[in-house]
Amino acid sequence: MNAVALKGLLGRKLRTVLTALAIVLGVSMISGTYVLTDTITAAFTNVVSDSYSNSDAVVSGKVAFKNTNSNTEETPAFPAAVLAKVKGLPDVAAAAGGIGDQVKLIDRNGKVISTGGGESIAASVDPANDKRFNPLKLVAGTWPIGNGQIAIDKRTSQQQHYAVGDSIGIAADEGVLQMEISGIATFSSSSSIGASTIAIFDVPTAQQLFDKEGKFDQIQVAAKSGVTPEKLVGEIRPLLPATAQVKTAEAQTQEAVDDVNSTLGIFQKVLLAFGVIALFVGAFVIANTLSITIAQRVREFATLRTIGGSRRQVLKTVLLEALVIGLLASVLGLFLGLGIAKALDALFSAMGVDFPKTGTVFATRTIVVSILVGVVVTLLASLRPAIKATRVPPIAAVREGATLPVTRLSRFGPVFSLATLALGILLLVYGIFGGGMSTASRLLALGFGTLILFVGVAVNAKRAVRPLASVLGWPGARIGGLAGTLARENAMRNPSRTASTASALMIGLALITFVAILGAGLRTSFGDAVDKLFVADYALTAENGFDPFTKQADEAVGVTPGITAVTPIRAGDARVFGDNTQISAVEPNLSKGVAVEWLPGSKNAAARLGANGAFVDKDYAKDHHLKLGSPIPVTTPTGKVLHLRLKGIFDPPKGGSPFGPVTMSAETFDANYASPQNLMTLITIKGGVTPSNTARLDLALNRFPDAKVQTAAQFKQTQEDDINIVLNVLYGLLGLSVIISLFGVVNTLVLSVFERTREIGMLRAVGMTRRQVRRMIRYESIVTALIGGALGIAVGIFLAVLTTQALSDEGIVLAIPWRTIALFVLGTIVAGILAAMFPARRASRLNILKALQYE
Question: Where in 188-236 does DSSP place strands (E)?
Answer without folding.
Answer: 197-202, 215-216, 218-223
